[in-house]
Design goal:
Order of helices and strands: HHEHHHHHHHEHHHHHHHHH
Radius of gyration: 25 Å
Low-confidence stretches: none
Strand order of the largest sheet: 1-2
Largest sheet: 2 strands, antiparallel
Length: 466
């Protein structure tokens, strides 16, 4: 039988209740390990609020989603009408629906900012590789969740956007047509597709997402948080085993996060009440028109948070394939001539290059566009092993590294903007250059990340009280 801790018979009722719970469930232990005795670096800055905000938005999406499911009907003949019923007849239904739709965009805003912080401060470097991998898994699950939820209103853009994206899978050699049929559940996007996407959006993907979030937090609290200096605070502890440059997460950062949550909710509610469509970026105007399989919208584009990767898809044309083939050949040539390796490895690299070029010439460019779109996300998983920089944080890297990251951010934003616009010759050329830079940034990182004069990293974190 387990040892039970007893409290004084004269103890307050609240203390007795907590003791009763602690003897049966480690409530106080969890609070200590993850809050009051979890020591975080004392030099956190503005960028460290977005993880907590992502948790807040996740809760908003789950709660509002539960109430929407109570009135939504996953039937192709009834779905659009049920959304209109929620908006017009359900008490406060319009507020719940707008919170959910605005929350989807808010989720990607805070997640993109969270990932950017990890990128510039090297939060994916040893020993935090698993934290980064779980985070990228969350990003991938979030994209799947958003795409499947986008179909559910059964408006024009929902229908045709799903039609375009699902049809892309048919470009995969051999299994493509069968895979697209499996995803749709029919030969065209219809009632079967809606039911499948509803099931995944409401049950399957949220379970995966929640599991990844828990794993992400457990991994974070196991190795400790990174900081803007990229210094491991656990390496310098006092006689009690407490990091000298750490402070308890609660109350210091819990109050910090409450302030950030207050600011976020003011912005969030302002959008919900005054501009829920956000000029057509959060809710497209075509989605207020019932889905019509016989009338294609003039311009089909995904929601803004998918558009950088959609631009990569559109950038890969038959003409672009020759540039990609040249990149493969140049990369293989440089690898063989500049890197010391056994002759056998050189032969493998050259053989692989020949096979890849042959595949690129024989398989339709549409397939390689799908590969580019998916590869833009998948390549993020390999970041911990692509960065060979001598230091973690951007603070102590050569100044030109900062410009490289700045150009990367501008490139990502330009790709996002072009993905919203109708195809054009100039836009297509810029998208192609942007796609090449995006992949070049990561694929050439093992080389450029170690070039330059690095600054001396201090032994202790740099912190000024404010």
């Amino acid at each position: 039988m387990a040892d039970f801790h007893e409290v004084s018979p004269n103890a307050p009722a609240g203390e007795k209740l907590l003791n009763w719970v602690d003897n049966r469930f480690p409530a106080s232990k969890l609070i200590k390990e993850h809050m009051t005795e979890y020591y975080a670096p004392k030099n956190f800055n503005f960028f460290y609020i977005f993880g907590s905000l992502a948790m807040l938005v996740l809760v908003i999406q789950i709660v509002t989603g539960i109430f929407l499911v109570m009135h939504y009907k996953p039937d192709a003949a009834l779905a659009f009408g049920s959304v209109e019923y929620i908006m017009r007849d359900v008490p406060w239904g319009w507020l719940i629906r707008y919170m959910h739709s605005t929350g989807a965009s808010a989720f990607f805003v805070v997640v993109y900012m969270h990932m950017f912080r990890g990128l510039i401060y090297g939060s994916y470097r040893k020993p935090r590789e698993l934290i980064w991998l779980f985070g990228c898994g969350i990003f991938l699950a979030l994209m799947a969740e958003a795409f499947m939820g986008y179909l559910l209103p059964w408006g024009q853009m929902s229908y045709w956007g799903a039609q375009v994206i699902v049809n892309l899978f048919s470009a995969i050699p051999f299994i493509g047509p069968d895979l697209a049929l499996l995803i749709r559940g029919d030969f065209v996007v219809g009632d079967a597709t809606l039911n499948r996407f509803f099931s995944f959006h409401v049950i399957a993907v949220p379970l995966v997402l929640l599991g990844l979030v828990v794993a992400h937090i457990i991994a974070l609290h196991e190795v400790g948080s990174n900081n803007p200096d990229g210094i491991e605070i656990k390496a310098n502890k006092d006689e009690n085993g407490i990091p000298r440059d750490g402070i308890p997460f609660h109350p210091y950062y819990s109050v910090h996060d409450i302030f950030a949550v207050s600011i976020f909710l003011m912005v969030f509610t302002s959008i919900v009440f005054f501009a829920p469509e956000m000029g057509g970026y959060f809710l497209e105007y075509n989605n207020f028109i019932p889905a019509n399989p016989f009338q294609t919208p003039l311009h089909i584009a995904p929601v803004w948070y998918f558009t950088p990767f959609y631009s990569m898809l559109r950038a890969v044309t038959g003409e672009m394939m020759y540039a990609l083939i040249l990149c493969v050949l140049v990369g293989a040539g440089l690898g063989v001539t500049k890197i010391k390796m056994p002759t056998l490895f050189k032969g493998v690299i050259l053989g692989a290059a020949v096979v890849i070029v042959a595949m690129m010439l024989s398989i339709d460019a549409k397939f390689w566009g799908v590969v580019a779109m998916g590869g833009g996300v998948v390549i993020l998983f390999f970041l911990p092993w692509l960065d060979n920089s001598a230091v973690k944080s951007i603070r102590y890297r050569p100044d030109w590294h900062k410009y490289m990251y700045a150009v990367f951010v501008v490139d990502f934003l330009v790709l996002g903007y072009l993905g919203m616009q109708p195809p054009s010759d100039i836009g297509g050329r810029v998208s192609q250059l942007g796609t090449l830079f995006y992949f070049g940034f990561f694929l050439l990182m093992p080389w450029w990340s170690q070039i330059g004069t690095f600054k001396q990293v201090p032994d202790r974190v740099t912190f000024t009280a404010h």
